[in-house]
Design a protein that fits this description.
Blueprint lengths: L4 E8 L3 E8 L7 E11 L4 H4 L15 E9 L11 E4 L10 H4 L23 E5 L3 E3 L6 H20 L7 E5 L5 H10 L3 E6 L5 H7 L3 E4 L5 H7 L3 E6 L4 H4 L6 E9 L11 H5 L4 E4 L5 H14 L5 E5 L3 H10 L5 E5 L2
Parallel strand pairs: 8-9, 8-11, 9-10, 11-12, 12-13, 14-15
Antiparallel strand pairs: 1-2, 3-4, 3-6, 3-15, 4-5, 5-7
Length: 339
């Protein structure tokens, strides 16, 4: 009997994609095997594809916005079974043993795989994942919609849940891209008065369509001053990958306002200490969420009509899909369609 195989894109070095046939093996203990339906192409895939891993000479399958169907379970797995629709995000499942897990801080587990970076991900027909990292996909949710919500979605959703703001308070979303176009929808559905901040007047109409009440063109006005004219923001969710563009936002916060950073930028944020001290403002970061929080996220999106704008590519065109994502021209999330 011939050995069963599956196709996967491995990457080594810098953007060295190779489509290979891999033997289809049973899932190890504590893991499941997933027949992939879709996988988002996220900017965080640069860690694998651009050779930013500890050893880029070792092949890895990128992709951490995986949606599919369980088709086999490993020893010790009791809460999951074949036929369930599941997802896997960037955090591949806590170990439930480290100090942070024992204190209930599963996001900061010190022994957690990074899907598509330290372990193989979803640019493939099959993927393997720890049972503790699995997310149930709601019935009827399109895998092309669900995939980006598992990383871009949960990141912005959890950032908004961190803030201390009453319904109707002014909340700003900086950047209208892969994260920001979802952030505007979440903020609107959560009942906030929403300000969108981006460069150029051409994005104003889209921002309003996505749920913004106000649009601030940061190329034409100081965004901090513009937020203060609106009464000051209880929070700003910064999604654009630029520390320089985030720096003026602190001055736009209301007293006790918070700048929550979710866009990973190569340059630092510069802030005047007085802007933090007078008004007791703060800056924090947000790293995605747990698997059960991701389930909450998906149900919220399904119930409230939050949907990503996507461009779909077949698995065979994964390198081109990655290039499209990196070009910055995609509107707004690129997704590989495997099924």
């Amino acid at each position: 009997m011939a050995e069963q195989t599956y196709r996967a894109f491995e990457v080594t070095g810098v953007r060295q994609f190779v489509l290979v046939d891999r033997p289809l093996h049973d899932p190890p203990p504590g893991h499941v095997r997933i027949r992939v339906e879709a996988c988002g192409v996220c900017h965080s895939d640069v860690l694998a594809v651009e050779g930013l891993r500890a050893d880029p000479s070792q092949p890895v399958v990128p992709g951490h916005e995986i949606v599919g169907v369980v088709d086999a379970v490993g020893a010790g797995v009791t809460a999951w079974h074949a036929g369930q629709r599941v997802g896997v995000g960037y955090l591949g499942g806590q170990d439930n043993e480290c100090e942070f897990c024992r204190r209930g801080d599963f996001v900061n587990c010190t022994n957690q795989p990074w899907t598509g970076t330290t372990v193989d991900g979803g640019y493939a027909e099959y993927a393997f994942a720890r049972a503790s990292g699995l997310v149930r996909i709601p019935d009827g949710m399109d895998p092309l919609d669900a995939a980006p919500l598992l990383c871009a979605g949960i990141t912005t959703y959890r950032a908004l849940l961190q803030i201390d703001a009453r319904p109707g308070a002014l909340v700003a979303i900086q950047g209208i891209g892969g994260l920001g176009h979802l952030g505007l929808q979440y903020a609107d559905r959560l009942g906030y008065r929403v300000a969108a901040i981006a460069r150029g007047a051409d994005k104003a109409e889209l921002a309003i369509d996505l749920g913004a009440d106000h649009y601030i063109d940061s190329a034409a006005a100081d965004p901090g001053g513009a937020l203060q004219k609106l009464g000051g923001a209880a929070a700003v969710i910064a999604t654009a990958a630029s520390g320089a563009s985030m720096s003026p936002l602190v001055a736009g916060l209301a007293p006790r306002g918070r700048l929550v950073v979710v866009g990973a930028a190569p340059d630092p944020i510069a802030v005047k200490t007085g802007d933090l001290i007078f008004g007791t403002r703060s800056i924090s970061g947000n790293l995605t969420g747990t698997s059960i929080e991701n389930e909450d996220n998906l149900h919220f999106c399904q119930d409230r009509g939050v949907r990503p704008m996507t461009e779909a590519y077949p698995l065979e065109e994964a390198p081109a899909a990655y290039e499209r994502m990196m070009s910055g021209r995609a509107r707004f999330r690129v997704v590989l369609r495997t099924a």
